[in-house]
Specification:
Elements (H helix, E strand, L loop, with lengths): L1 E6 L3 H7 L2 H8 L4 E6 L12 E3 L7 E3 L1 H14 L4 E11 L2 H8 L3 E6 L7 H6 L3 E4 L9 H12 L32 E2 L2 E2 L9 H19 L1 H5 L1
The structure holds adenine.
The site of adenine has 12 residues, from strand 5.
Length: 225
Amino acid sequence: MRIDIISVVPELLESPLNHSIMKRAQTKGILEVKVHHLRQWAVNEYGQVDDYQYGGGAGMVMMCEPLAKAIEQLKAERPYEQVIYMTPDGERFSQKIANRLSLMGNLIIICGHYKGIDQRIRDHFVTMEISIGDYVLSGGELAAAVVVDAVGRLLPGVLNDETSALTDSFQDNLLASPVYTRPADFRGWKVPEILLSGDLKKVDEWRYEQAVQRTEQKRPDLLDS
Ligand code: ADE
């Protein structure tokens, strides 16, 4: 999978995408992430990519031309399934959307800044708008990193244990069950006996019950859906 990210602060994406599992995904050649500085498509030699908004009001708006040129240049190089705009008024990101995106080949992600991007880019180029939650970040970069991470770890071969993404929270509308590691007794706090029993069927049943219980307690809304 290839993801092209268009940003005015590409530095914000460096660390989250170049460590741990995202780094491994790229080193293995399973995921390719390219971050493009929008200023290379600026409208003048001062690197201008934003301007005052029509109708007045505080805050700058990201201009059409640099974004249109960036998207068109990328699209001339390869086909893209989605042009995604990260914005607090987009569709709420979820495991379901991550699953869907992980099946795609090439994606463009646009990170907004200031007051956002000119509506005409949203109308004519953007095919999907994603919010990572009901709060406003100072730019779309951290939100884009969240999406790339959640999608990237689902790509076959990225996680060492292929099944481990399947038992994640949310994968089947249930939160994950509790996990334990050695020692079996820490300060008198014991690991549930069943996990030490070696009876895999019983362990599976226990985990399922725990997941249901935990979901009922913490996120009953998941069970309603
Ligand atoms: N840009 C600013 N806030 C955002 C959010 N909550 N989700 C996605 N992109 C954003």
